[in-house]
Each structure stands twice: as structure tokens, then as C-alpha cells.
Design a protein that fits this description.
By secondary structure, the protein is an alpha+beta fold. The termini are far apart. Helices cover 43% and strands 19% of the residues.
């Protein structure tokens, strides 16, 4: 009996050691930064069993077998669609400002598509104005409406949007709604979902979370895009989820969420439609690729002719594209660089680029919310402040709510707006969408908005910062160590 127990014990020990070796080899073989590799190895060494479980569930960018296969099949049709779209040469351009040229060339090489011209663009900062514009466009929709959001929460103006969608569906407009399973978990338990589905609206729970598939794909991989498409002519994107800030997270103690949304008309809608179609097919297996734009969609009037590059990122799209875009944008700055983000956990490369810009004389401003809804991210962000302040970067802490806007302005010419936070999850994990807009007029509009943010912010003082308590420094260093895992 003792021999049998000893034998079984050794079998378990052998399996345990093989599992540790297997996971260690997987960590070493993955394409990731040295810091990330070392952090994961340390987690495995400190707590092998828990570390292995965490790694197998959160450590690799795994869509799951079914979605991965669907992604490969989808891209076969996407490539064919892109080749056909390139025949519509009148929507593309090679003409860019000196500030934007490197970034647009990067996107052309990595994504096989150029920036598109002939677009009308409107920046909207007031939530009520955004909602009313969406409702107006839905009411005039004739063919199709597609939406994708990380969070949809019923209440206030959001319910008015739902009512407009229901009315549109009942009059024959094809309506599709794709919502993240985690971000919109409360909504999927709302009776309104059945009402909308009974009205004919297709509602898909993207990247559904369940215990059955926890080891089959990465559970914290999220659909983070915020997109609205109407009749393949009008498109919206930006930082705003489908929530009414008068009701959303009122008990979080951070104040109202402050967002920025871009409304567009023109051929850029077709490109965004392609991104949406790819996501929809991965989730449902159904193909809904948009038709190529016609010349009637294009406005060549100077006041409306904006050049836009659509940059989708996430599993299945160009690997590392958004990180490369951000680095290119920062290194393109000659005089001024302004960044706004709610969550600031830059990679070593991006942090180095930002500090280098400040050292070489660029006026660098970073605007962050003073109070964050994520305690962990709030502390992790502070770990970078000392190095940024030393380089001469001005850090502004917004005090009138949770500044949720994601924007970058380079020399008042190159603008990046969309759904991407300056953190690891947006760089290498989530499904995101960014617009690169090469236009001084748009840059001027964005600059005015950022100036308003700065006017409502507290400028962090270097002399006061270095006097912070010792225990704060310890917490910052602790979360700084965890940055590669966030």
C-alpha cells in the first residue's frame, strides 16, 4: 500500500513538473517583451499552481479554435474585397502633410490600404448632442444600421436610441447590434433585449464568457470598439459607450464620464463597415461586407474634404499595428504633442518615445483624470510620473469627471482619435478602432477641446510630487512591476 501511495505521489509530482516546464517553454516561445516574459516567469516561480492557471487563462492571445478558423476564412474574403475596393481609386490619396506622411505610409504597408478622401467630419463633445445626432440619423435610415459597443446600459437617452432602433427595424431597416459580453453583462439581463429582438433587431453577445470555455480562449479579450454605421454612408466612433453619463456609474465617485465622438459621412464609412463585417462574421459566421462607395458619397469641397486612415487593431488584424502607429506619431512631433487618455500604462518603448520628444524640445502635455474608476490602473499610472516630469512632460489631472477621451494631437496637424487607451490591453489585446486624420482644421478643433480639458485640470508640480509619502512610492513600484500583465 505504501509503495502504491509513493508511486502515485511521484506520478503527481512528475505531472506537476512537466506542467511547469510546459508552461515555461510556452512563455519563452511567445512573441512578447522581455519584461513580460520575466514577469510571467516570476509569477510561475512564486506560486506555480495559481501562476499556471492564470497564465493558461490570461497569458496568451487566444481567440479559440472556432473563432480563429473563422478569422482565417474571413480574411480570404476581406483581401478579395480590398482588391476590388482599390479599383475605386478616386477615394484614395498619397498626398499627406510632412507630419503625417510617415504614419500613413506605415498604415499603407501594414494594412494594404491608403487613407481615404472626400469625407465630412464633425467632432462632438456633448453627450446629449451625440445621442440626438444618432437618433436623428437612425430615424432617417433606409437600409441598414450596425452598432458595436463595449458597454450598453439602459437608462436616459440610451433608451431613446433603443426606441429609435426598434422603430427603424419595424419599418424594414436591417439592424445589427454587437455588444461585449463582459462590458454589457447588465444589459443582457435587461427585458429590453427581448423587446428589441422581437422587433427584428439582431443582437449578438460578443466574446461570450462562460466556465466551459475558460481554458479554450482568453477570457479577458474584449470587443472594445465603439462603432455606429448607418446606410453605409454615415459612421460614428470615439470613446463613448452607449450610456447616458447622467445615470452611468453614479456611485463610482469619479464624476461624469467625459467623451469625444466623431461623426463622419463619406467613403470612410465603407472602410469602417469592412471592419464591422469582419467582427460580425467572426462572431456569427455570417458575411455582410458593404458595397464599394460610389462617387456621390464623396465631397471634394475643401471645407468637407478630410483625409482619414482607419486603423483597426486586435486579433486577426495587423499585429502590433496600433503600438507602431503610436510610436510613429510621437516621433513625428516637432513642436507639440498633446495626449488624453483615461488609462495610462505605456510600454517601455512608448514611454521612452514620449520622454525623448520632451528632451528634444517638443512641448509634451498628457491629460489624465485625477480620479480613476480603476484603483489598480490609477496607481500603475503614477509609477511613470517621475520619469515623465524629469523629462519635462507636463501632466495635467482633469478634475471635472472621468476624462474618457482618447486622443493624440501632433503639431496641430496629425490627429489620432478613437477607442484606444494608452495601456497594454489596447496595444496588444482588445479589438480597437483608431482614426488618423491629417488636417490642420480638424487639429485646430481638437486643440480647442484639449485646451478646455487643460483649463479644468490641475498641473502636477514636480517639487510637490517628489515629496509624496514613502508608502505611495511602494504601491507605485508594486503596480509598475505588474504593468506587463495588465
Amino acid at each position: 500500500m505504501n509503495i502504491l501511495c509513493t508511486f502515485i505521489s511521484w506520478i503527481f509530482i512528475l505531472i506537476y513538473l512537466l506542467l511547469i516546464v510546459f508552461v515555461t517553454i510556452r512563455i519563452l516561445m511567445q512573441h512578447r517583451t522581455i519584461n513580460s516574459i520575466l514577469a510571467w516567469l516570476l509569477v510561475i516561480c512564486i506560486s506555480p499552481i495559481i501562476g499556471v492557471i492564470i497564465y493558461l487563462t490570461l497569458g496568451e492571445l487566444n481567440l479559440g479554435k472556432k473563432r480563429s478558423k473563422c478569422t482565417r476564412n474571413t480574411w480570404i474574403s476581406i483581401i478579395k474585397w480590398l482588391n476590388e475596393l482599390k479599383e475605386s481609386r478616386y477615394i484614395f490619396t498619397n498626398k499627406h502633410s510632412n507630419i503625417s506622411k510617415a504614419l500613413f505610409n506605415l498604415c499603407r504597408k501594414r494594412q494594404s490600404i491608403r487613407g481615404v478622401i472626400g469625407n465630412k467630419v464633425q467632432l462632438i463633445t456633448n453627450t446629449s448632442d451625440v445621442m440626438n445626432a444618432i437618433i436623428h440619423d437612425i430615424n432617417f435610415a433606409r437600409k441598414n444600421i450596425e452598432m458595436a459597443f463595449y458597454i450598453w446600459q439602459s437608462s436616459g437617452l440610451t433608451d431613446k436610441v433603443a426606441e429609435s432602433l426598434i422603430a427603424a427595424s419595424r419599418r424594414g431597416v436591417k439592424c445589427r447590434l454587437m455588444l461585449d459580453s463582459v462590458g454589457s453583462i447588465a444589459f443582457f439581463n435587461d427585458p429590453l433585449v427581448n423587446i428589441m429582438r422581437n422587433a427584428g433587431i439582431d443582437i449578438v453577445e460578443a466574446l461570450q464568457v462562460s466556465l466551459l470555455c475558460i481554458f479554450l480562449r482568453r477570457m479577458d479579450l474584449r470587443q472594445h470598439r465603439k462603432v455606429i454605421l448607418i446606410d453605409n454612408k454615415i459612421a460614428y466612433t470615439g470613446s463613448m459607450n452607449m450610456v447616458d453619463p447622467h445615470f452611468f456609474k453614479k456611485d463610482s465617485g469619479v464624476g461624469p464620464w467625459i467623451d469625444l465622438v466623431v461623426r463622419m459621412e463619406g467613403p470612410v464609412s465603407t472602410i469602417i463597415g469592412m471592419v464591422y463585417a469582419c467582427d460580425w462574421e467572426i462572431e456569427t459566421g455570417k458575411r455582410i461586407l458593404p458595397s464599394p462607395p460610389n462617387k456621390k458619397m464623396i465631397s471634394l469641397k475643401k471645407e468637407n474634404n478630410y483625409t482619414i486612415q482607419v486603423i483597426p487593431s486586435g486579433p486577426g488584424f495587423s499585429e502590433d499595428i496600433i503600438h507602431q502607429v503610436l510610436l510613429t506619431a510621437v516621433y513625428s512631433a516637432h513642436t507639440q504633442l498633446i495626449m488624453t487618455t483615461p488609462y495610462f500604462i505605456p510600454s517601455d518603448e512608448l514611454l521612452h518615445a514620449i520622454c525623448t520628444a520632451a528632451y528634444r524640445g517638443v512641448e509634451v502635455k498628457i491629460i489624465l483624470p485625477r480620479y480613476n474608476d480603476s484603483v489598480l490602473v490609477g496607481w500603475a499610472s503614477r509609477a511613470f510620473f517621475t520619469e515623465l516630469l524629469k523629462a519635462g512632460v507636463k501632466i495635467y489631472q482633469f478634475e471635472k469627471g472621468l476624462l474618457h477621451t482618447k486622443s493624440i494631437l501632433v503639431d496641430k496637424q496629425l490627429c489620432l482619435v478613437g477607442t484606444v487607451n494608452l495601456d497594454m490591453r489596447s496595444f496588444w489585446l482588445n479589438f480597437e478602432l483608431t482614426l488618423a486624420i491629417d488636417d490642420a482644421r480638424f487639429g485646430s478643433d481638437l486643440a480647442r477641446i484639449q485646451d478646455d480639458y487643460i483649463a479644468s485640470s490641475y498641473l502636477l508640480d514636480d517639487a510637490i510630487w517628489i515629496k509624496r509619502a514613502w508608502w505611495q512610492r511602494i504601491i507605485e513600484k508594486l503596480f509598475h512591476f505588474l504593468n506587463p500583465l495588465l
